[in-house]
Amino acid sequence: MDMDFSPQDIAFREEVRAFLRDNLPERLRDGARRTPGVFVEPDIGMEWHRILHEKGWVAPHWPEADGGTGWTPTQKFIFEKECALAGAPALAILGLRLVGPVICAFGTPEQKARFLPRILSGEDYWCQGYSEPGSGSDLASLKTSARLEAGSGAGGDEYVINGSKIWTTHAHHANWIFALVRTDATVKKQAGISFLLVPMDQPGVEVTPIHSMSGDHEVNAVFFTDARTGEENRIGAEGAGWSIAKFLLENERGGSCFAPRLIQSIDRLEELAQTQPSGVNGAIAHDARFRDRLARVRLEAEALEVTELRILAELAKGRAPGPQTSLVKLLGSNIGQQVDVLRLELLGPDALQLPLERPLYGNEAPEPVGSEYAQTAMGRYLNNRAATIFGGSDEVQKNIIAKTVLGL
């Protein structure tokens, strides 16, 4: 594999850098830096979303015919890396990276025309209805049901939905949810699942907040009591939901580039280590044990970057990402947790602060103890403990890798 960028790729990188320099406001960088959660709040994320939409760069992972950029896999990687280096907010993935590609791949022309423009513009904000109480890693055991009823008058047939979903990110902001539901309980459990798009603003949909240990409100429980959605809002055929879900999970687990943001975090740790006291003799950067651990995690992040580039090379040849995405998800989550631990050790007692006010940016934000970096350190650590669970736990990823990559 040729690891060198072509002259065209280098020119594209310079174009991206110039755009970020001229169009990424400092208040968005500041908001992203001061956000300890996994997702930035919509006031930060959606402003950046709209800036990128105006440029035509908001959906690089979509087909060009559906509103994507037409970039090569290498250009997509360059764009994500430069955004990470510039401190840009990470965009909400639920619409752009998860349900959007599903609609592009499996939606009817009518569904594409209805939903894709509103995802691109940010008019619709999505959440994901997958996990349920008792059905997380064993997602195929889900129990939320959808029964098709004949419509009356001018209305078409509708699904009536009953059940609940949990750990639903940003459901309190969303006006649509894409959900896996059981439409047939008489067949093999994977075969009875369908993929529905459901409006949130209706009777029968209740959102209950779940506050994390860090004090963040990112996830929720969602309860459906005779909630309704039209048959035209089903993606694919009845019973095709499991296959569609696997396609979506490949995008969730490996559709992003983990390494650039990890390497940026490690760069920041190295900078801070030059000034943070070790408590023994000078800065902690001179502590051999800390330097060794930091060097090891950097090597792991750089190895992950090479793995991501190898996957990009396969995508450039027209091949599907496949089970390698599980490897990226497994490594990215674990390296990220190592970075969190090093951050806490580096910052010492200042990292013990855990302000519960939100947001931690803007005029009403509480004053940090020591630094803004220390103010978010514990929140990041606590929130990212879930990284090895959400999107498929480590155990699930290892099973996938063992079966499909190693052939065990």
UniProtKB/TrEMBL annotation:
Required cofactor(s): FAD
Oxidoreductase as UniProt keyword: yes
Cellular component annotations (GO), alphabetically ordered: plasma membrane
Start and end residues of each Acyl-CoA dehydrogenase/oxidase N-terminal domain: 8-123
GO function term, MF aspect, one: oxidoreductase activity, acting on the CH-CH group of donors
Domain Acyl-CoA dehydrogenase/oxidase C-terminal: 239-405
Domain Acyl-CoA oxidase/dehydrogenase middle, chain residue ranges per copy: 127-217
The keyword Magnesium is assigned to this record: no
InterPro entries recorded: Acyl-CoA_Oxase/DH_mid-dom (IPR006091), Acyl-CoA_Oxase/DH_mid-dom_sf (IPR046373), AcylCo_DH-like_C (IPR036250), AcylCo_DH/oxidase_C (IPR009075), AcylCoA_DH/ox_N (IPR013786), AcylCoA_DH/ox_N_sf (IPR037069), AcylCoA_DH/oxidase_NM_dom_sf (IPR009100), Mycobact_Acyl-CoA_DH (IPR052161)
The family this protein is said to belong to: Belongs to the acyl-CoA dehydrogenase family.
Protein name per the record: Acyl-CoA dehydrogenase
UniProt source species: Erythrobacter sanguineus
